[in-house]
Amino acid sequence: MSDSEVYEFQAEARQLLDLMVHSIYSNKDSFLRELISNSSDALDKLRLESLQDKSLEVDTSDLHIELVPDTEARTLTVRDNGIGMSREQVIDLIGTLARSGTGELRRKLIEAKDAAASEDLIGQFGIGFYSTFMVADRVTLVTRHAGESAGTRWDSTGDGTYTVDEVADAPQGTSVTLTLKPVDTEDHLYDYTDATKLRQLVKRYSDFIGWPIRMDVEKPVPASDAETSDTADDDADDTPKTETVSETINSQKALWAKSSDEVSKEEYSEFYRHVSHGWDEPLEVITVKAEGTFEYQALLFIPTQAPFDLFMRERTSGVQLYVKRVFIMDDCEELIPEYLRFVKGVVDAADLSLNVSREILQQDRQIRAIRRRLTKRVISTVSDLRDSRPDDYRTFWQNFGRVWKEGLVNDFDNRDALLKASSFESTRSTEDTTTLADYVGRMRSGQDTIYYMTGETRQQIENSPHIEAFRAKGVEVLLLTDPVDEMWVTSGVEFDGKSFTSIAKGAVDLDDLDGDTDTSDDNAKADKEKQAEEFTGLLGWLGETLTDDVNEARLSSRLTESPVCLVGDTFSMSPQLEKLYRASGQELPKTKRALEINAEHPLIAGLNKAFADGGDDHADLEPTAKLLYGLAVIAEGGELDDPAEFAKLLAGTLTTSLESSPS
User: Fold this and answer.
1) pLDDT (tens digit per residue) in 580-589
2) Cα 130–chain centre separation
3) Which long-range contacts (CB under 8 A, 24 or more apart) does 101-105 make?
4) pTM across the whole model
């Protein structure tokens, strides 16, 4: 392989670059924040690597970031002496978009109606380096990985290709040089070679970076020094003397070490964007300070928007671990449970070893203590959000409710608190969700359980035959449509002493909900017993005819409009849960359920009469029995084993019906 090679961007990356270069964003300044954040990460990683690998020959005495503007050449260079990148890393991390979701971002960028919306999307999809093409006609990156002898140059004009060369004398670290576009005031493109402008941007976006950000600036020479350097030449001019000095232009103050009254809302927002690589505002800021035998500080954020990779395996947790202000790891999964992976922020501990590995962290008692406290703080914060700021809570739940409920499955210690802070859709309202406390407060007299039904959509559940009797009697039902609902609701969970009961499983009797027992109830009971006797023959025959699909046929007390429905046993899997397991590649035996029939429905009444009139031979009714089973499957949103057979049976039955009808 030659030292210099030309590569093509991946198709989606090329289209994405074109969108970014030619789209108009309300704030192009963001490119500088992204480059400085990348440099900060590189310095963090070098410091950690030098602590873990004593044989690594690197100088860490003056780790820093440097800005080098050149007004005449119209270039801006951002360089660091951090960990650097190898040739392979440059190709993998810079040359291609090694993140899933690129196509989705392109679609959303195209659909975005305004500049602010487009800008929000960039941060969500983690493509900070590519933001440089908003302000530059050419981007050149030179880097050398710590411990390697040769460096790499990456160069592109964003036109679909990039060049990779070997550089023999590259310094350790990374420098990114932007050949800037012409200044265009109409396009809100500032002069990014202007030292004053750069200083303002660093102060606004990156003042909290823990490493010094330096820039050469011109400063007046003190009068005494100027006089000393002057010659006696009579022709000496009166121009003020200046000198070039390297100046640190950020404060380097760790935001989490300050008290909340010392930090402005804007500073919190910028720090949140730094650690999350997002563009939204934090929905809530959480500060934690523990003192005593074990000290640590934490600054956590609940985002306003869910990141695109929230449910992807390769996504990152977003909580950084520091020890005594020294960066340890970028995404410390041990600090926060999986179901709170949307939380972003920093934890700075005082007593952990700097040379710490993930295996040690998993067993560390102090880390487990931090995890417990942070978990409880996040849960209590969300609970307070629900009580004090319902609109913000609604935003939180729409974005993170599905993830939050994962904790109901695997965090038994905090399950009660999680349930109290959760909310669910129900038949009570189509506009808002309900808490379990409010549901229990509205329960009917005599009701001792929380009724629910799972399904793929709210509409599917509301149209299900299972819900008919509950709707008729005004009994509230929770509508659970997230896949995780199938897991937690069947795990034996209770709320306020009330169990959860699926309206699609087991027997249902709503007659005693109001707690009244009078003569009318006795009469209703007698009518049911008489009806059961009338349908005994049909029920037995249906059970035998459909034995491959159902375990029994019985009269229903939950149907008021539909002719039939399928009902599982109390502890059986729901069809939705079976579908989830099969989608994950797990083979499951077919689960038989009960076929419930509505004795009041004209179709069932007619079938029972035909059965009674048919004597001992009911072969002609078998197609109807199979059609009833198919109708029950379709009504609950299920999939037929053999749709073609069902269609054939339906066509045959309709044909027979038309032929026998009077002309």
Assistant:
1) 777 777 777 8
2) 23
3) 101/125, 101/308, 101/309, 101/312, 102/12, 102/13, 102/16, 103/12, 104/308, 105/16, 105/308
4) 0.70
